[in-house]
Amino acid sequence: MPVRIAESSSCSTPSQGSGANSGDTLPPACTLLSVGQAFSGSQNVSSLQKDEAWKVNVRIQGCDLDHGYLCGTMEALNVPFADTPVVTFWEGEIVDTKNYTFFTGKWEATIEDDIRHWSKFPSFSPLLNEVKDDGGRSLNLSNYPYIFMRWKEQYFVNVGVDCGLTIAGFYYVCFSVSDGSIDGFYYDPNSSPFQKLELKSTNEGKSGFSFSSYQLQ
Amino acid sequence: MPSTAAAAAAASSQPDDLIRRLRSSDGAVKLKALRELKNQIIGNRTKKLSYIKLGTVPDVVGVLASSVGIDSGSALIVESAAIIGSFACGVDAGAKAVLEAGAFPHLFRILSNPNEKVVDTTARSLRMIFQSRLAPKYDFSKNENRDCLISLLNSDNENVTGLGASIITHSCKTVTDQKILSGAGVLRMLITLLNGSLYQREACLEALTAMLSSNSEVISNFVDLDNGRALSSLINLIEDKSPRTRLLASTCLIVIGRTCSSYLQGIELKNKLILILIELLEEPDRVGDEVPFAVANLIADREDLQRLAFEANTLDKLCDFLQRETLRPKRFEGLLLAIAELCSRLESCRSKFFSLKVLNLVTDSLKHDSADVQTAACICLRNVTRSVKKLSAGHFMNEMVVDPLIQLLQDSSTSVQVAALSVISNIVVDFANRKSIFLRCGGVKELVRLSQSMDPTLRLNAVLALKNFVFLADNSSKECVLAELTVSTLVSLICEPKVQEQALAFVRNILESGINSVEHVFTEDGIIVNAIGKQVRNALDLNVCIEGIYALGNVATGNELHKEAVMSQILEPQVNGPSQSVLIKFLQGNNSQLRVGAIWCIINLTYPDGPGTSSRIAKLRDAGVICQLKKLADDPCLDAKFRVKTALLQCVNNSCAK
Amino acid sequence: MSLFWIVLGQPGRLQEMATSKKLITREEWEKKLNDVKIRKEDMNKLVMDFLVMEGYVEAAEKFRVESGTEPDIDLATITDRMAAKKAVQCGNVEDAIEKVNDFNPEILDTNPQLFFHLQQQRLIELIRDGKVEEALEFAQEELAPRGEENQSFLEELERTVALLAFEDVSNCPVGDLLDMSQRLKTASEVDAAILASQSHEKDPKLPSLLKMLIWAQSQLDEKAAYPRINNLSTATLEDPRDL
Predict the structure, then answer these.
(1) Are the CB atoms for B309 and B291 separated by under 8 Å?
(2) In what residue span(s) does the CTLH domain sit (chain C) (predicted)?
């Protein structure tokens, strides 16, 4: 039987023993965006005629910066026609220019759609020129005070697909490291355009901010 | 099935008669008896064992020894050597008996016999013995041994060269062995022999693998041979027509690639290797059994190879095999391990795994008879449960998965327990509010029991699992765990060097949900907070400091009393250290995580609107903390920089409000 | 997530496949065939491979002398292999085992499946000869321990022993075990194992080349009309059917 060979120090294989994409092996880019953290705010679903919004709560459940991965749940309250809050699970792509660039390249989003949506964030404008050519592949965003992401909902957690809502689209998201606020725009060719998501980091009524962690094996 | 008395009698008298004839002085009678014995035992484990029990092996070795040098002795030698080899083949007791009967030196001596058939059989027989783990280690550091080995490898007889290779495979275990053999020019000899017959080639491939394993120096010697032609002939062999050669050449290449990845770089080669291994999965018998292990070894810790393997549909194939009936335990184990490695890093692989509907099969194999299969099933489950997407859906938190795992926590084998713990650690990170299922199944009780095990690995992993269990848990679940664990055990875990990081993280998670949760650690005169404070002040390990300061930061989200307790812990001068507080030390530290943790702690202590906030700010200022904070206003870590801003703003606003 | 806004049905478009086949004339075909160069030595090797594998010792020897093609195994060993194979075909399994062990004692020690099948064949022969008592004893003494080692052996053993339960074995569900084909199956396993021990493939190359030809033609049939080989023994090219 072939045996697992211990890695020799002279060679270039990564030294991560278990290879787990655990919640906390890497420092999160920002503690406010780490697993367990909560956000609350609203999603504006307005068409031009009337202003309509529902309350939204988000909780971060997983984070794997190596793979530019973030995930969590999104809870929508006071949704029209729904008798309970609707919870979805989403997975996020962090635009780190290594795993993911500003170009979505899927989910029916063209480069024009990408630019149009990213440009809605004021913090994006300094990057626009570099992004136009290659999605920003050569940009170093590790010290940029904003983290850009795409959040794509994967499934409904507590209701069926017949709940009257769609998760066909995805959110363009911008997180501010300075105050932990999140802005986002929902994109789905079949939904009302530019629905705005506005969230603030919340300590859920505690007298301060607490942080928890888990570690996948 | 009934057996007649007569038949039974005949069967039992036969071996006695045979042994009697073996001892005959008549050569012809002896030869006939040897042939009968040979044809009875070859391939037949039961027969081997019964003859070993009857003490037949020394008789056969006796015949071998006494036939050397006599006329017409060749036939006797051929038969007795074949028998000795067969006894040693696949039966430990046989190898032991053969070695104890002193067959070794006789056989080695006979290798120089002029009769080719005699040499053939003897070399084969020795090879069988060297394939047993009981064979003595051949000492390459002795000159005469080295010479002997080289003369074996130089032989024209392929069974003799094959023997030389087997000796290397069996005995080349250390870096020193590898260097001695490489220095003696053995690499080149083995490469030349690769052109020989199938047996010879396969024996040489195994020997090469033994020589190259984890030794970058010998690997580069090998690669430099004949301008890289050695490496390319090895690469050619992965496409050989013999399945076993393909496997052995692949295994050798994998060993090279794992130690020096630069020699296994080209995407074409990687793809080829993967496709060849996938194809070899179809092989019956030993080859097919070993292939999954080779796959696992190839892709372990190598995301690039995992991705390629995934794109080549390896996961589908492995899962397809897993569902076939009557899998031998070895193959079953290998398949589970290969699937585990494939799902170790890539979420796309895990998604695929779930869509292939084999989860139940893997869960069922937690109850397999073989401990190796159980362990492999745990490792497989551990890796697929790294999917937060599935964890979030509460996919694994059900009795069908949890019950057998909890059973395994009581297993007699520590490695099975550790493997089961690792799966449980993942499963209890449950976001769907189903933690009560785990409590109901008695899981927490078991984890608490293991947190006090004599085995440090079990202790550590049990505390880690408890930490994950209380992550975002509801209050009642947390209370159950604390009641089960008891305050005194928790304190001793916090103080135990290897476990304390996890124990502190456990407390941190307990404390996460506000005042009620903070109250949990203020029982018994705040003994837990005192223990945390003490560890934080004295710890040398960075991770312990980080977990500790976050734990204290979480305490500081409680009421005034809680905040004051934290103040006294972090402002107390360090024992045996400089007079400055641990808080300042952390703020001055090089590690940004630690700095951020300390800043959060200050943010919580100076959180607006508390009746004692002003006095705490004053105390922090007096202790030089505020001054230190200001120095971090341009911290290169953005998170630290912005959090410092928040903290300072709170201090300023507080004084303005007054 | 969002409320549904517009729901557009997008009817799938079926792409029409081109259905016309390409016609390749005999002239074109033969010209292309002539462009393919096959070395005489390679053809000879194919023939030698076939003769060696199928055990035609004398023909192989003659062919060696005439064509100068060296076989890749010692022709003398063909005789041993054929003798072992033949012994199984005639039902002399013990004899076959002895021959295999004389040839190379490692084969049956490292090939449990072959060993089991030989023992199973011995049992079948005992049953065929009506030696019920001996068969039972043999099954218990020799085969039952193998069944304990391997689940699939146990199933095969149970199937074989079932032969004893029927008065008229020619009509029983496991009667196929007594067919000549069972002996041939076991014999070819012996053949393959000996060949493998000599670093040889277990099947001659020529038949698989012919199989490949048939497969390639059937693939090509869907796309083109061309001069086909319908009769493999004459290998004549048939004119393509008019479209």
Answers:
(1) no
(2) 77-134
> What phi and psi values does residue A79 have, to the nearest 5 degrees?
-80, 135
HSE value, Cβ hemisphere, 13 Å, CA-based, for A152: 13
Q: How far is C239 from chain B (nearest CA, A)?
A: 37
Compare CB distances from B124 to C106, C115, C155 and report the shortest one's residue. Answer: C106
**A144-189 pLDDT, tens per residue?**
889 999 999 999 888 877 777 888 899 999 999 999 999 999 998 8
What's the Cα-to-Cα distance from A23 to each of A33, A38, A152, rounded to whole Å? 12, 15, 19
Answer whether B397's CB lies under 8 Å from B430's CB.
Answer: yes
CB contact under 8 A, B638 and A177: yes
Residue B636 amino acid letter: P
d(CA B115, CA B349): 58
The reply to whether residue A206 touches residue B514, judged by beta carbons under 8 angstroms, is: yes
pLDDT tens digits along B495-537? 999 899 999 999 999 998 878 888 888 887 788 999 999 999 8
Q: Which residue from C3, C6, C8 is facing A45, i.e. has the nearest CB?
A: C3
The Cα–Cα gap between B582 and B623 comes to: 11
pLDDT at B605 over 50: yes
Report domain extents, chain C: 73-197, 204-243
Task: Tell me if A82 sits within 8 A of A73, measured CB to CB.
Answer: no
Cβ within 8 Å, pair C109-B89: yes
C2 touches chain A (CB under 8 A): yes
Residue A107's φ and ψ, nearest 5 degrees, are 50, 35
Q: Please, are residues B549 and B508 in contact by the beta-carbon 8 Å criterion?
A: no
Shortest alpha-carbon distance between residue A54 and chain B (Å): 23
DSSP string, A125-188: GGGHHHHHHHTTTT---TT-SEEEEEEEEEEESSS-TTSSEE--SEEEEEEETTT--EEEEEE-
Model confidence, pTM: 0.80
What's the gap in Å between the CA of A6 and the closest CA on chain C?
31
What the block records as the tokens of A16 is: 């991560």
Mutation target vs A (from B520, B552, B639, B648; most A CBs, 10 A cutoff)? B639
Domain B7-136: top CATH class? mainly alpha
Residues β-bridged to residue A38 = A59, A202
Torsion of CA C93, C98, C104, C108, to 10 degrees: 50
pLDDT of A130: 86
**CB-based contact (8 Å) between B48 and chain C?**
no
Q: Does B328 touch chain C (CB under 8 A)?
A: yes
Q: How sure is the predictor about B1, in pLDDT bands with cuts at 50, 70 and 90?
A: very low
Pairing between strand C22-23 and A69-76?
unpaired
Q: Answer whether CATH 3.30.559 is correct for domain A31-202.
A: no
Q: How far is A67 from chain B (nearest CA, A)?
A: 9
Question: Which tens digits make up the pLDDT trace of C80-138?
Answer: 999 999 999 999 999 999 999 999 999 999 888 899 999 999 999 998 888 889 999 99
CB contact under 8 A, C145 and B85: no
Decide which of A23 and B180 is more confident: B180
CA separation for the pair B457, B450 (Å, rounded) = 10
Which two three-digit tokens encode residue C219?
């693939």
Is C10 an interface residue toward A (CB < 8 Å)? no
Q: State the DSSP string of B271-321.
A: HHHHHHHHHHTT--HHHHHHHHHHHHHHHTT-HHHHHHHHHTTHHHHHHHH
Using CA atoms, how far residue A2 sits from A19, B89, B270, B292, B423, in Å, is: 20, 20, 18, 10, 25
What would the pLDDT profile of B129-162 be if each residue is shown by its tens digit? 999 989 989 999 999 889 999 999 999 888 899 9
Label the pairing between strands A182-187 and C224-225.
unpaired
- Asked if C1's CB is within 8 angstroms of A74's CB, the reply is yes
